[in-house]
Design a protein that fits this description.
Number of strands: 7
Radius of gyration: 16 Å
CATH architecture: 3-Layer(aba) Sandwich
Number of domains: 1
Order of helices and strands: EHHHEEHEHEHEE
Structural class: alpha+beta
Distance between the termini: 20 Å
């Protein structure tokens, strides 16, 4: 596969995705999405509202440095994305360093919560536009890094279609249940390097 760096001006299609900061009113919807089989398979965490409030409440309040967003497509809430500076989580940074020399600056995680939008290229376009937003938010960053399970074929195909490149495969030494099992690490580089 030929690697193509992502640029802040690239547009995949006519759809424009909105990324609205996660609010407390969004937690019931987030819990419902996390309970859906196509999400729960990869996001190994409790989906009851109390657990989701404990886990994501600090992101809403701003006491966790991870920036969390509800994804909108037109007027519809369709999914969730988050970005974080890898240096803000020393344990995750160390886990990535065991696999990569350059772990990059930004990490992202994402899912489409609405099952009727799976398999239509929505993920590819959402990832591309969110990566563009990451470059704008962090102008000195030069790399976005994503780790995911090898069995999550739809997700890594969406990453590849959005211009990310696979750079590693193996088991990540992480206490997060979502990181268990064989994983891939993908990266995207800022276009102007």
């Amino acid at each position: 596969m030929t690697h193509r760096a992502l640029s802040p001006t690239h547009n995949w299609g006519l759809e424009t995705f909105g990324f609205e900061p996660l609010g407390s009113d969004d937690l019931p919807l987030l819990a419902a999405w996390l309970a859906r089989p196509h999400v729960a398979r990869w996001w190994s965490e409790p989906s009851d509202l109390a657990a989701v409030s404990r886990r994501y409440g600090p992101l809403v309040e701003g006491t966790d440095p991870t920036e969390a967003f509800i994804v909108h497509l037109l007027d519809r809430k369709i999914g969730y994305v988050q970005r974080y500076l890898i240096a803000d989580d020393p344990d995750w940074s160390q886990a990535l360093r065991a696999a990569l020399d350059d772990v990059g600056d930004i990490g992202i995680d994402y899912f489409i919560g609405e099952p009727d939008l799976i398999g239509l290229g929505t993920g590819r376009r959402m990832i591309s536009q969110f990566a563009d937003a990451c470059w704008i938010r962090h102008p000195s960053a030069d790399q976005i890094t994503v780790a995911l399970q090898q069995e999550n074929v739809a997700s890594w195909r969406a990453l590849e279609a959005a211009g990310f490149r696979r750079v590693w495969s193996g088991d990540i030494d992480s206490p997060d249940p979502s990181d268990r099992g064989p994983s891939f690490i993908y990266i995207a580089l800022r276009a102007d390097l």
